[in-house]
Amino acid sequence: PGPAVAAGVDGRPNPAGSARTALEAVDYHPTTLDEVARRSGLPPAELAALMLELELAGWVESVAGAFQRCR
Prior knowledge:
Blueprint: E1 5-7, E2 13-15, H1 18-24, H2 33-40, H3 44-56, E3 60-63, E4 66-69
Antiparallel strand pairs: 1-2, 3-4
């Protein structure tokens, strides 16, 4: 499989596929990984890797054991 992201207008890579699904399940306030898994329907093991990818790309940040979207 190829990368789950492509270059975006603001310089951040645009999430695609499962990464986009995961991002859409995260709020702008702390959202637990369990809640993201419930909303997205993605398996927790895959989701953990996707959240790291989204964090490194600048779409989410880790906050107190949860994730929240970056503006």
